[in-house]
Amino acid sequence: MGINIALDGPSGAGKSTIAKAVAAKMQYVYVDTGAMYRAVACYMVTSGTDLDDTSAIIGKLNEIAIKLEYKDGAQHVILNGEDVSEKIRTPEISMAASKTSAIPEVRAFLFDLQQTMAKENDIIMDGRDIGTVVLPNADVKIFLTASAEERANRRFKELQEKGDPSTYEEVLRDIEQRDYNDTHRETAPLKKAEDAIEVNTTELDLQQSIDEICRVINERI
Ligand code: C5P
Predict the structure, then answer these.
(1) Secondary structure of the chain as H, E, C letters
(2) Per residue in 100-113, pLDDT tens?
(3) Which of 6, 8, 152, 178 would bridge with 138, disulfide CB 3.0–4.6 Å?
(4) Is 96 annotated as ligand-binding?
(5) Pair type for strands 197-200 and 74-79
């Protein structure tokens, strides 16, 4: 059993950037569970599945094989043999993942893979339900937040750098919609675990956020 760090929080709080940096610094494996949900959504979108047709989505889960591979410390998501790590980072897939992740069968489908990775490695795993559902016995649980406006700001800049035409208002609306979806779904909604430490990064830059998370972890392990 390795050391398990659970990092949860809403969309755009900086979980993946921070988790990647902390993993590199502490020599943990970084597991991005959002990427797994995105890969499932990507399959559904690519195969033309109606995202409102829950039984069609459930029916297609057995056509999907997801693997995580690591090259130079970076996580790659392999969907049926294809590296989709880049392809899953679009606003369309973000919204599709937010929808399909509410389906309990989709969550159950990814749960084993997530738990197995945590058993086999020292990991920092980010998501929405890691501290509450996937790794309830994690050594350290962190709940990372920032205001919706600040999260939209950061995501907007990232998308602009990639040449994505989305406006700030669209990005903010998407974030608010995904917050709503994640906190209101019945199965494994986004919420702070009782024993999680909350870190708010609204006023922190990236380096300060990384330092604060490392401090919180080092204090507890
Ligand atoms: O973290 P990221 O934005 O990449 O996640 C994509 C979507 O997957 C989220 O909007 C959320 O609905 C879902 N998700 C989830 N549970 C997780 C990780 C992600 O429901 N553990």
Answers:
(1) CCCEEEEECCCCCCHHHHHHHHHHHHCCEEEEHHHHHHHHHHHHHHCCCCCCCHHHHHHHHHHCCEEEEEECCEEEEEECCEECCCCCCCHHHHHHHHHHCCCHHHHHHHHHHHHHHHHHCCEEEEECCHHHHHCCCCCEEEEEECCHHHHHHHHHHHHHHCCCCCCHHHHHHHHHHHHHHHHHCCCCCCCCCCCCEEEECCCCCHHHHHHHHHHHHHHHC
(2) 999 999 999 999 99
(3) 6
(4) no
(5) unpaired
Confidence of residue 73 (pLDDT cuts 50, 70, 90): confident
CA-wise closest residue to 31 among 119, 139, 151: 119
Question: Is 104 labelled as part of a ligand binding site?
Answer: no
Q: Whose CA is nearest to atom 9 of ligand 1?
A: 98
For range 1-28, the mean pLDDT = 93
CB 143 within 8 A of CB 193: yes
Enter the DSSP assignment of 62: G
Ligand 1 atom nearest residue 101's Cα: 20
Q: Write a three-state SS string for 67-124.
A: EEEEECCEEEEEECCEECCCCCCCHHHHHHHHHHCCCHHHHHHHHHHHHHHHHHCCEE
